[in-house]
Amino acid sequence: MSRGVVMAVLGVILVAAVFVAVGLLIGDANFAGIAAIIAAVAFGASMVGLMALLLTLVGTVRELTATVERITDQTVPLLGGINETVAGVNTELARLDTIVASAQRISGTAENIAEVVHTAVANPLIKAIAFTTGTGVALRAAKKVRD
To answer: Which whole number is the average pLDDT over 17-24?
Structure first.
């Protein structure tokens, strides 16, 4: 038992003893006096119960406070680590953004080059194919005329 509970029990016993002593000194030990003593003892017992409950509650609050302090001690370094990780991820995302922007520029440049090559090669190539086809037709026609 804790010291507070022991003190409460002693207080109840003292109150009961005072009531009994007063009843004996007065010499009037009737039903009302006995009822008063029983009521006082019951009141004292209920106070002892409340004291025990409060002491248990105080102990629980102390344990809870200690637990919260331990959790705080463990959580603060974890949050610091998370902040470092997030900063690293942000740095990598910035690098990735730069790489994607470069890839987009390269893709745009490749499209422009393809268009320039198409423009530069397509027209002369079509003319060369047309010339070759025309020459082939002319040669076949010339062969038919000779034969």
So the answer is: 71
